[in-house]
Amino acid sequence: MKRKLVVIGNGMAGARVVEEILKRDPNKFKITMFGAEPYGNYNRILLSNVLNQTQEPQEIFINPLSWYQENDITLHAGVKVIDIDRERKKVEGLKLSKADVAYKDQVPLSEEDVVKESYDDLIIATGSRPFVPPIEGTELKGVFLFRTIDDCHQIAAYAKHCQKAVVIGGGLLGLEAARGLMTHNVEVCVIEAAPQLMPAQLDLEAAQILKRSMEAMGLRVFTGVVTSKLVGENGQVTSLLFKDGSTLEADMVVISAGIRPITELAFKCGLNVNKGIICDDQMKTTDLNIFSVGECVEHRGVIYGLVEPIWQQARVLADVITEVNPKSTYEGSRTGTKLKVMGVELVSMGEKNSNDLNDEIIVYRDPHRSIYKKLIVRHNKIHGGILLGDIESSDSLMQYFMSDLDVPENRTEILFGAVSGTSLVDVSTLPENAQICNCNGVCKKEIVSAIKDQNCISVSAVGSKTKAGKGCGSCRGLIAQIIEATVGKVSYDASEHFYVPGIALEKSQLVREIQDKQLKSVSAVFKELADGKEDADSKAGLASLLKTVWPDAYEDERDARFINDRVHANIQKDGTFSVVPRIYAGVTTPDELMRIAQAAVKYQVKMVKITGGQRIDLLGVKKEDLPKIWKDLGMPSGHAYTKAFRTCKSCVGTDFCRYGVGDSIGLAQQIEYRFQGIESPHKMKLATAGCPRNCSEAYVKDIGAVAIEGGKWEIYVGGAAGATVRKGDLLCTVDSHEDVLKHIGRFIQYYREHAKYLERTYGFVERIGIDLLKGILIEDSLGICAQLDAAIQRAVEAYKDPWQEADIPAYDHQFSGPQLIQVIHEVNNNG
Amino acid sequence: MTKQTIINLGAIEDIPLGQGRCFIVQNDEIAVFRSRSQAIFAIENRCPHRRGLLAEGIMGNDKVVCPLHGHKFDLATGKGSEGMECVRTFKVWQENGQILLEYPIAINVEKKCEDHYAEIVLSANSKIYYREERK
Q1: How do the domains of chain A map onto residue ranges?
Q2: Domain holding B103: CATH number?
Q3: Lowest-pLDDT range of A142-156, A434-448, A577-591, A659-673
Q4: Smaller CB count within 10 Å for chain A: N or C?
Q5: How far apart (Å, rounded) are the C-alpha atoms in residues A126 and A66?
Q6: Cα-based distances in Å from A716 to A143, A159, A614, A692, A774
Q7: CATH pick for A336-416 out of 1.10.300.10, 3.30.390.30, 1.20.1050.90, 3.55.40.20
Q8: Mean pLDDT to the nearest integer, A434-460
Q9: Could you give phi then psi for residue A771, rounded to 5 degrees?
């Protein structure tokens, strides 16, 4: 017969432990769960997303109610256990009325609806509750805690009628709550009693940088301020009174000052309880049949509030209780936290401050970009670490910390990696013929030979010798590692920062020279800035830049262009071309389709393909046929061959879709008419989505506009779904199509002016940072918005459909194919 | 049997400045380039890597970049940037605005030629010259 297992607590820990048990032995137990909240269990970590409405409550549920049925689990949702009878092995629960908050310790008793269950084994996973500091007035209307989905709903509803919200608590949860509140159009102020934000994760210096970043986003922050009283009028909160006598007005207050384990139940039935419920290494309490797991547990004196240690506990508990591995033990966790606070990424592990004079302390500061990195190394191991603003090296740092490994001799490597994108793969263990560059098929031994025999000791030198790292670039970190392993250290070419290899200037310097010297053609640039030495690899980049600098006065030299841009079609491996007519927003007509079909037949195209950008691609057209097919098509160029605005795909939006909340087709057409053919450092693929279901994949486009309820559009930038996959960052939310066009134009122009050649928007946005971009493009922190708007307008006005060259070629023989020279064998002998 | 022959490929202006063009002579595709400094070069048209059309490549500093995968070739020597890759080169020059190419033409008609040059008229604006190598 099955043993009866009762689990008290249906939060993340309780549900996880049940999953782990079912995984090991689905038939051992008849499981009953009690959850005080009237739901299945959900991912509490994502609560702030519910508060700021980026996620719906149902999206954060981990197990739907059907999961309990499928696994034959009896779930008493909305039932709070009030008593454990250890002698009779019974628990007793009471149904909560809807109004009762799940984690309150005082529950009004009603003798009806008592739920009784008996058990053979019991797991206590009661978790924790918000800590409410001893402040007067917390019962006032407008004062909230932040812990459950219901809290989120209540906070959101109340915020509608408020102007000023105060969050008490500047820890992780407090800042999360503040982030959520800011989306409700209230002024938000965070009060922290400690002298700094996030005292559990950061040292003072990092906290100050974080504070500045938060303030730059419009949050007010007061640290070292202790609240003594919440003052109200007519039972409603109106202000806060602080210990120093000062006051602050507030329409609502959210208290988020940490959490405390819920232990009363365990204490009442006589289990050993200190700060948390004391458990041994097998997650057993002092009663052999009662286990405990999660935030309510105190293990070896430590209480964990992060998921990773709790998952470990759940695994050990499941091993032991199912007897799959009765000797399994949990020995505590070394954990780091990696999180994102209001868009600022940070990683923290171990100690925040050194208390030993023998510690090595390595600190990197970049105040301008709000980056701070600190390592405390003790006995050659990571004792503590903080990364703020740039967490690229966090994976390897965590690895060193959690596995307690000796750190590399060169400490800076742990802070920065050898080159961005360094992976943890140990190159020395890779076989000689392991393929390093998957784009160009270069294996390790070729790279090693370039390093040893050709003395290539920089990533770019290896690249120009072997082509490794010249494709998508994701293997550049590995190449750096190989160089390091072979010759000891990697050198950096200054040329890596040049805009183009043939001219020794960075982009900003180059632009200044071009403007000062009025250089309007590629050959003029070579003449003035490179002693007349033309570099083939630099020509296309310069042509693109000049077109940006001089939209209407650029002197177009076609030899500086890549073949695709000379003939406005994309060269294929067999030397033929592909032809993609512009189909604005992916919306076409039967008439256009007929012309496309007729042209495809007439020019015997080898394939007709629907592209990822909602276009029709005619593949296998001969160069000399290009002008003819364009004329037959009678449609403008779709620019599917060049570094420019490519396409704006769309979903069917409000015209037909029953979910659409915004006119995505209309907007996409406006975008495409406006920005078609605008050249840029790399291609730009756009999309508009009529609702956040994202059918047109706007979140992963270079620029995406997503309609949200209320007639608004969110603009995302820097998305990618190629060799790199990245969700775009939210640049801004606007109210009208005009504003979408304005902000997209501004971003495009800034990207055109500041990105390196061939740098896609995802790399650019990551390099500059979305917060800085918001400052520059939305808040106009540099005062250049008007200038950007005017510049993009000039570029728009300078647009000409390149397929017009079908009628008037740009130069003789633009579309000429190979010329056949007839050789006649008879010789007219004049001797 | 082949004979080094001088072939007129037409007017220099028929190659756009700073670009290449492909001429087909017998069984060979030959890419002829005209640099902005008016130097001319002739190499075989197909990249040894994946048969990319070198005539469509960007040229600069007497090199051409294959449009398919960026392999580079020295226009004067044919030497490639990747390992042992290289392309054939042909002697080419201009005379009176005409491009002249020296090409080992396949000949099966035996003809004795006393002069260095003999002229074959092909059409009004295209001429073929041939030259017999002296032993």
Answers
A1: 3-129+261-321, 143-257, 336-416, 427-491, 507-561, 643-799
A2: 2.102.10.10
A3: A434-448
A4: N
A5: 22
A6: 34, 26, 20, 12, 11
A7: 3.30.390.30
A8: 84
A9: -65, -40
Is a pLDDT exceeding 50 seen at residue A164?
yes
Same fold: A3-129+261-321 with A643-799: no
Q: Percent of chain A scored above 70 by pLDDT?
A: 94
Q: Are A805 and A811 in contact (CB under 8 A)?
A: no
CB pair distance less than 8 Å for A828 and B119? yes
Question: Contact, B31 vs B21, CB < 8 A?
Answer: yes
Please, are residues A115 and A92 in contact by the beta-carbon 8 Å criterion? Answer: yes
What CATH architecture does domain A643-799 belong to?
A: 2-Layer Sandwich (3.30)
* Three-state secondary structure of chain B: CEEEEEEEEEEHHHCCCCCEEEEEECCEEEEEEECCCCCEEEEECECCCCCCEHHHCEEECCEEECCCCCCEEECCCCEECCCCCECCEECEEEECCEEEEEEEEECCCCCCCCCCCEEEECCCCCEEEECCCCC
Burial of A181: CB neighbours in 10 Å, binned 0-12, 13-18, 19+: buried
CATH code assigned to A143-257: 3.50.50.60
Cross-chain Cβ contact B25/A821 below 8 Å: yes
A829 and B113 in contact by Cβ < 8 A?
A: yes
Which residue's entry shows tokens 């209320």? A710
Amino acid symbol at A405: L
Structure tokens at A537: 């690899």
ipTM for the assembly: 0.83
| Distance separating alpha carbons of residues A30 and A71, to the nearest angstrom | 10
- Chain B residue numbers with beta carbons less than 8 Å from the beta carbon of A562 are 58, 67
Report the C-alpha gap between B72 and B82 in whole angstroms: 8
Q: How far apart are CA A735 and CA A240, in angstroms?
A: 35
Nearest to B16 among A812, A827, A828 (CB): A812
Give CA–CA dist A140/A136, Å, rounded: 9
The token pair at A57 is 């409550």
Q: Report the half-sphere exposure of A503 (CA within 13 A, side-chain side).
A: 30
Angle, in degrees to the nearest 10, between helices A536-549 and A507-516: 60
Select from A724, A718, A677, A680 the least CA-distant residue to A699.
A718
Q: Is the pLDDT of residue A39 over 80?
A: no
How long is chain A?
Answer: 831
Secondary structure (3-state) at A104: coil
Q: What is the DSSP string of A532-562?
A: T---HHHHHHHHHHHHHHSTTT----GGGS-
For A20, A315, A821, the CA distances from A299, given in Å and listed in that order, are 20, 15, 88
Calculate what percentage of chain A has a pLDDT beyond 90: 54
Read off the DSSP letter of residue A61: B
Name which of A533, A563, A573 is nearest B50 (Cβ-Cβ): A573
Q: Which residue of A821, A828, A831 is in closest CB contact with B24?
A: A821
